[in-house]
Amino acid sequence: MASRYAEVHAAWRRDPEAFWREAARAVDWIRPPDRIFDPASGPYGRWFPDATLNICHNALDRHADGARRDQVALIHDSPVTGAVSRFTYGEMRDTVATLAAVLAAEGVGYGDRVVLYMPMIPQAVFAMLACARIGAVHSVVFGGFAAAELAKRIDDAAPKLVLTASCGVEPARIVPYKPLLDEALRLARHAPARCLVWQRPQAPAGLVPGRDRDWAEAVAAAERAGMRAACVEVKATDPLYILYTSGTTGLPKGVVRDTGGYAVALAWSMPNLYGVAPGEAFFTASDIGWVVGHSYIVYGPLIHGATSVLYEGKPVGTPDAGAVWRVCADHGVAAFFTAPTAFRAIRKEDPDGVLRRHHDLSRLRTLFLAGERADPTTVRWAEQGFGLPVVDHWWQTETGWCIAGNPAGLGLLPTKAGSPTVPMPGFALKAVDEAGAEVPPGTMGALVIALPLPPGALPTLWGQDGRMVDSYLSAFPGHYETGDAGTVDADGYVWVMGRTDDIINVAGHRLSTGGMEEVLAAHPDVAECAVIGMSDALKGEVPLGFLVLKAGSARPRAAVEGEVVALVRERIGPVAAFKLAVAVDRLPKTRSGKILRGTMKRIADGADWALPATIEDPATLDEIGLALLARGLPAERPAVSPAVPGPETSR
Ligand code: COA
Ligand code: AMP
């Protein structure tokens, strides 16, 4: 079908408020919006300032009380535990209402924060919705983060309650979550009044008397007492959640998501971008700890009345590279969304797609990729193998939904491999030079979005309006700085080439090299350090650390290298995938003392590099090259990492 994108985009351009007023009709409001946008409040304005609603009502009750009561809302498919369970909208609403009553009985109310440190189990989804039901603000922390990272988030969000499970189940090991939470609470300054613990049979946890409570027992008692919490009326501008994401330092940014704008943006995206109808199955293979999981495992599909698949497994190894196709077939999935890393992992093990052919994928219409740059080789492999459209779309934790994509529901536009296609309505995107002037089509620049950001995007950072302005709104006045570099070509297609800051993407997981450097620098024998993102054929990028030992340090270099690797795992978590540190005599620097990270990355990637004119001592780069060579680097590998190596001297 011919794409309606141009027409829809033009309608938004012509009258953004009318566009979002119309889109807002997909949401059930308690008080419908009269005003659409208030430019005077918040760092850049607020959407639907006078409206009220409850997003849990939109995600559950309106379906449970209507025609979808017996339709499956959530399927938990867990190859790591060998279980599949299904919950209808009716069942899920009742479960969530009871859990919400438990939270309320623990003193959690409107505006209170609740931290979730949970694996991919249905209780995690119930908990998010239970918070939303009573107007509490949830903050989910990804399970692959270590205790110290969890502690930072607990201190910033200051939750009344923490919800956890006794363990996560990774293919090769059980991850006991509860000891990590106990350690985080030991490290944190803030002490939540209560922890609710979901006991899993794989590794039940010990409970701290007076602080910890058994989740299942609490729910059972509430059920016996007939306790159910009703949906609380909240303002559209009230925070629904805080999601911490990597910034340039070790201090994560608490991205705030408001309630009404988010509901409207997700409701618009489900039919128009993803082309999914209510009642169809939507499978996002991400984690509820990431923004993709918040938006398209939990809120988007449920608001739309679709069936969402919650997958506790990996693309490979649980049990094989056909796992996600088995899930798509078993649950009649219409749209599948994952990160390019997952496709690269599948391609590596099953290049000819043999395992895929064992499964009936006749209901699968579209594959969506996001989270990192989709390398054209992987996209082509998937397109040719499946004979299905593969939609790369670009977004960020901050934006909450897609900045640029190919709207399947409006009719797909022709694709250009390597481009996530075109901006979605609401995102007035341009590439600009350092002075903020728009660059000609096809010219590389900083990708910025003219304010206001659309509904669904962050209104601010938690408790930090000033940091919001400093981090995103001050470099290019009147614009949001995405932190990505790229181009917009003559056809309006967007090309995202890489970050302009210290953020790297490891297997679709966003990490801060600055945060890792803080950990390395804390080692008593380390004088100086630099962490860069090195191209990796599977994970896109992996971190690589360089260190200079303190003068007089008597420790063997190899010992310190091993210790900093262990330290990053302990302080940041296994998700950082920090496996290699290299000690050198000196780091390459400019004459003004800035570390030449960009050139180091090029050397590690085996890319062409030129001697920077400002270098203090060229021999330092030779040392880097030789040290890497001794470790078999750069390895021969397809270039999947961003074409832009990031800033040369960002710190
Ligand atoms: N809880 C605890 N630990 C976790 C975890 C969780 N929720 N998720 C990951 N980890 C651990 C892993 O066990 C692994 O630990 P290890 O070093 O002991 O092996 C480490 O963190 C790195 O995990 P991961 O990035 O998943 O790498 P992997 O080598 O285990 O698997 C892939 C590789 C490609 C299969 C995996 O990265 C993947 O599925 N990627 C898709 C990414 C994705 O969906 N991103 C979402 C953004 S849209
Ligand atoms: P996160 O906040 O974890 O979603 O990470 C956001 C960052 O991931 C973006 O700023 C980009 O650098 C990168 N990213 C996400 N999706 C894409 C994509 N489709 N193409 C290129 N980069 C992407």
From TrEMBL:
Domain AMP-dependent synthetase/ligase, residue spans: 62-450
Family per similarity comment: Belongs to the ATP-dependent AMP-binding enzyme family.
Every Acetyl-coenzyme A synthetase N-terminal domain range: 5-59
Annotated protein name in UniProt: Propionyl-CoA synthetase
Key word Ligase present: yes
Listed PROSITE patterns: AMP_BINDING
Residue ranges of domain AMP-binding enzyme C-terminal in the record: 516-594
Record's keyword terms, sorted: Ligase
Enzyme class, broadest EC rank: ligase
The organism's place on the tree of life at top rank: Bacteria
InterPro entries: ACAS_N, AMP-bd_C, AMP-bd_C_sf, AMP-binding_CS, AMP-dep_synth/lig_dom, ANL_N_sf
EC number: 6.2.1.17
Gene that produces this protein: prpE
Single GO MF annotation: propionate-CoA ligase activity
Pfam families hit by this protein: ACAS_N (PF16177), AMP-binding (PF00501), AMP-binding_C (PF13193)
Source species: Lichenibacterium ramalinae
Signal peptide boundaries: none
